[in-house]
Recover the amino acids of this structure.
C-alpha cells in the first residue's frame, strides 16, 4: 500500500449558509485519512496509545484550490511522506469524486511522544512499527 483512499461526504453541519465547507474541516478530513491509513497498516491510534506512543500535530498546512460543498462526496488520498527518528509526516489530497477535481492538498507533521509528552525514538520504542512505516516511506520514494 503506497497510499490510502477514504471516501467522505460533506455534511450540512460542515458548511456555511452558502453550502461551502468551513476551512478548518479540511484538517478533520485529513485526520480521517490519516486514521484510515494507519488502520490499513494494521494499527489504530488506540493501539499506538496503548503502547505509549502518541502523535501530536506539530505542523499543519493546507492549500485550498476549490471549495468543497454540501453533500459532495470527497476522496481523501493519504500518503506517508516523511519518517524520522522522532517524527513523521503525511501528505493529503482532497478530490471531489464526481469530477475528479483536486480541491485541496495538505501536509501534517507529527512527533512521537510518550504519555508525558516527551519525545521518543520510535525505532527504539517500537521496532516493529518503525519497520512498517519505513517500508511505506521507501515505497513512496521508489514510485
Amino acid at each position: 500500500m503506497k497510499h490510502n483512499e477514504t471516501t467522505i461526504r460533506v455534511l450540512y453541519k460542515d458548511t456555511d449558509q452558502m453550502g461551502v465547507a468551513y476551512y478548518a474541516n479540511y484538517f478533520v478530513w485529513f485526520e480521517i485519512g490519516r486514521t484510515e491509513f494507519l488502520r490499513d497498516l494494521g494499527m489504530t491510534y488506540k493501539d499506538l496509545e496503548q503502547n505509549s506512543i502518541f502523535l501530536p500535530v506539530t505542523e499543519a498546512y493546507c492549500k485550498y484550490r476549490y471549495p468543497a460543498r454540501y453533500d459532495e462526496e470527497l476522496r481523501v488520498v493519504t500518503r506517508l511522506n516523511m519518517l524520522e527518528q522522532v517524527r513523521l509526516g503525511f501528505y493529503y489530497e482532497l478530490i471531489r469524486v464526481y469530477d475528479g477535481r483536486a480541491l485541496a492538498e495538505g501536509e501534517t507533521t507529527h512527533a512521537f511522544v510518550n504519555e508525558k509528552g516527551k519525545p521518543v525514538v520510535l525505532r527504539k520504542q517500537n521496532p516493529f512499527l518503525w519497520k512498517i512505516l519505513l517500508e511505506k516511506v521507501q515505497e513512496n520514494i521508489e514510485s
